[in-house]
Amino acid sequence: xxxxxxxxxxxxxxxxxxxxxxxxxxxxxxxxxxxxxxxxxxxxxxxxxxxxxxxxxxxxxxxxxxxxxxxxxxxxxxxxxxxxxxxxxxxxxxxxxxxxxxxxxxxxxxxxxxxxxxxxxxxxxxxxxxxxxxxxxxxxxxxxxxxxxxxxxxxxxxxxxxxxxxxxxxxxxxxxxxxxxxxxxxxxxxxxxxxxxxxxxxxxxxxxxxxxxxxxxxxxxxxxxxxxxxxxxxxxxxxxxxxxxxxxxxxxxxxxxxxxxxxxxxxxxxxxxxxxxxxxxxxxxxxxxxxxxxxxxxxxxxxxxxxxxxxxxxxxxxxxxxxxxxxxxxxxxxxxxxxxxxxxxxxxxxxxxxxxxxxxxxxxxxxxxxxxxxxxxxxxxxxxxxxxxxxxxxxxxxxxxxxxxxxxxxxxxxxxxxxxxxxxxxxxxxxxxxxxxxxxxxxxxxxxxxxxxxxxxxxxxxxxxxxxxxxxxxxxxxxxxxxxxxxxxxxxxxxxxxxxxxxxxxxxxxxxxxxxxxxxxxx
Length: 523
Prior knowledge:
Mean pLDDT: 82
Number of domains: 2
Helix content: over 70%
Order of helices and strands: HEEHHHEHHHHHHHEHHHHHHH
Strand order of the largest sheet: 1-2
Shape: elongated
Largest sheet: 2 strands, antiparallel
Distance between the termini: 65 Å
């Protein structure tokens, strides 16, 4: 009995010990930033207090990006069991840091998306206070969203912070409201576009592979094409977004290079997939296994591109503050010192390792059930949507795209499930006066049939029976009774609410923080 009580106490305190470890590690990172900034960035023999504080806030922001935003890149792969949690964190950490350091850029936008005019800020001191307030507000909001289990846009968090602090510093006229309108539109555009593309790919996989009688033979033909499309999408995406520091090219060149890579990948993987398929059974689980390696590559490539782009959300304002303090320049763009980029890269990695699993689980398994085919479709949607949006000039969020893709495949599954159940009910409706054993035999045959055979069976059944034509009211009743919810509505409502309030909440917090900082700094 005493041993059991000891075990119960140990189980109860394990979570608390982990939380203390995470908090302690995060604090050590922040303290390390403080000590490094003091030793390496002394001006006239003494460290600049505002620069030290800004560096610490930048590290805090970077950890929150790792805790919240990185989940979108690896969550579907973990949810589909293509990667373990530890494997996903390791891959994401390596490729996020690599993307930030190798392709993160020499210069970042200090006023994210050009939403305010730096000239409207009174002086350099006010500019520094504004950027500190924006950075801290964005970090706090990301922290709150992570605790609530809501994946939100890092870009929108910092946009809201810059807008709110900018208005507090220079008035309403400082804001570029046309840009803000485009950003607000992206709240709808990003998830809808991501959801539609993910659902379209999933339907194509079902239509041309899993709805076929010989799924393995269909997979040998279709999977290499899908992998080649993935290679094209990710190559183009990386060239446009992830490698712009190393190689800046126009869209047509990037697309052409991506197409060449896709052709090479197709030639390489076609015999490999055929060889792998010959060892598998003719069922959905076997087909799923063919998508494992493409999913691992997609998680790595998405993480690299994310590190190359979104690290600027952590270090952009910090780079601006560094530029003002060291050179006195209030610019819309600023160079990134290596130590600033390292804060972003290391902070994202630490945040992912300490607090990332919570959001990875939310994205990977708590919204809807994902298998490898569905996760592959979400990864495809993430890259293709960014490519389309960048050419249309639409400001989209990678977080919104990925989560929208998850909702898209979930709702498509709901629709297909409801349609199938409705077909089964129609079959039963036609056989109301028949022998139950005959009905069951017909249903078994219908279940095993591929898509074309199902359509033919239903057509023939309707031709034989006048009862086949259900009226509109009967169809609605069937759909209402047998509609299965495969997307958790509570998660959907919580995430949507967090998306809508991200910019206003971070903006309000930034304005309050700006007035607080200014009040403390003014004599």
